[in-house]
From TrEMBL, chain A:
PROSITE patterns: ABC_TM1. It comes from Tumebacillus flagellatus. One of its GO terms (cellular component) is plasma membrane. It is a multi-pass membrane protein. It comes from the Bacteria. PANTHER family: ABC TRANSPORT SYSTEM PERMEASE PROTEIN P69, PHOSPHONATES TRANSPORT SYSTEM PERMEASE PROTEIN. GO terms for molecular function: ABC-type phosphonate transporter activity. The chain crosses the membrane at residues 12-33, 76-100, 121-150, 177-197, 204-222, 234-255. This is ABC transmembrane type-1 domain-containing protein.
TrEMBL record, chain B:
Residues 2-246 form the ABC transporter domain. It comes from Tumebacillus flagellatus. This is Phosphonate ABC transporter ATP-binding protein. It holds the Pfam family ABC_tran. PROSITE patterns: ABC_TRANSPORTER_1, ABC_TRANSPORTER_2. SUPFAM superfamilies: P-loop containing nucleoside triphosphate hydrolases. InterPro entries: AAA+_ATPase (IPR003593), ABC_transporter-like_ATP-bd (IPR003439), ABC_transporter-like_CS (IPR017871), ABC_transpr_PhnC (IPR012693), MetN_ABC_transporter-like (IPR050086), P-loop_NTPase (IPR027417). Signal peptide: none annotated. One of its GO terms (molecular function) is ABC-type phosphonate transporter activity. CDD domains: ABC_PhnC_transporter. Keywords: ATP-binding, Cell membrane, Membrane, Nucleotide-binding, Phosphonate transport, Translocase, Transport. GO terms for cellular component: membrane.
Amino acid sequence: MNQSKAIKPPSKLKYTLIFLVLAVLYVISYIGIKADFSELWTGLPNIGNMLSQLWPPDFAYFKSILKPMFETVKMAVLGTTIGALLSIPFTLLAARNVFLNRWVTGITRLILNFIRTIPDLLLASVFVAIAGLGPVAGIAALIFFSFGIITKMTYESVETIDPGPLESMTAVGANKLQFIGFAVVPQALPAFIAYVLYTFEVCVRASAILGLVGAGGIGMGLKTNLDLFNYTHVTSIILFTLIIVVIIDSVSAAIREKLL
Amino acid sequence: MIQFNQVKKVYPNGTVGLDNINLTIHPGEFVIIVGLSGAGKSTLLRAMNRLHEISEGEILIDGKSITKAKGADLRRIRRDIGMIFQNFNLVKRVSVLRNVLSGRVGYHGTFRTLFGLWPKRDIELAHDALRRVNIPDKAYVRADQLSGGQQQRVSIARALAQEAKIILADEPVASLDPLTTVQVMDDLKRINQELGITTIVNLHFLDLARKYGTRIIGLRAGKVVFDGPVEEATDEVFAEIYGRKIQKDELLGNVEA
């Protein structure tokens, strides 16, 4: 290197350009979709109207939504568990420090990207068409949904594990499965469990929505009541869902904190 | 016996890592490889168990070519070569015993090892190995609970449990303090003498090299510039290997020769 020149700080041009490009993108998007915030403003009085109908919640209704609520949680449990089990081989196949062959990781990632591109509501609609109305369609949708999230997050953390034990397992003459079992699994397990719990939280919230397309759970009750303008019942459902989600979130956050 | 036949290693960016290496290391030798950082010490060591690929030539381990070996044959050759790393390379979240037993995976089937169904002899072997490095009471402790020196002893125990015929140690004491350095080197020396395991160690402390080695190999820019018994490795020889006079930080100090 030429050491006689004074050392200059690196140019900031790159960041300025990135900022400008982003700004242009925002403006183009705003104009492109003909967004008009004044529509929101003129609609404002409707909010008050809506809110007054939503209040007060019908507490007596809590009892009759107990069953669909539990159905929602059960759907999330099943969907997340099966999705998590399916994700294990794909996680390993996608991690570049486990499989050095770029074809293996590349093709696996392509499949994963494809699955993650499909929105959960679309998945649910497809499965309702296949399996009919009810929780089976919802569970099937959640399997794909949780599979996509868990695999993506876990393989990224598998790629950040300490390479030392990987090297020493190669050196002792371990085969691929022993290499995975002795060096990868113990290091990646805490992150995997944490992501499964996080995905379970997301799935509870998602499965509350899936009912809108007829895929079982509390969402079906939500849709019926919305259609019948039973807004006090709607409020009860929202409140109940909130309570369940908060409980699950805090329990799983506590477990995850212990793990990582 | 380890044989290097005209071994050459060129990195993709054109840097020459090893330049026409011809070496024979006999069973039971305690070889110490010295040289500046970047001289190719680590590359040479890692070529022996093929953690690094070479570009030309051939390396034979007990007459078998590790350079040409594939799949199960390669794993079989590696099973006989224990390796000790600067950063210990233990799985920190599991017990010391499981780390030591991981040296045994080459001897048993996948299912058996993955589910921890070790034969009784293997478990005894692992405990024996820990006894040999003076930490028998640590078997059921998690590896990350141990000090650096103790972790390095676990990795020596792993190589012992592996029943390795050769031990490669890549800067085994570079992350240790002077006192534990001497303990770990003593362990390696004792194992070499008692069990006759061929031991090859990369070091950058020259006084340690003199105290423990029976044979010194000096590397400079990927070439062997000195190869001889420890008695011949004078200060002048080291100055030649390093291309300059020996500096204070290349001596650990307080090592009774």
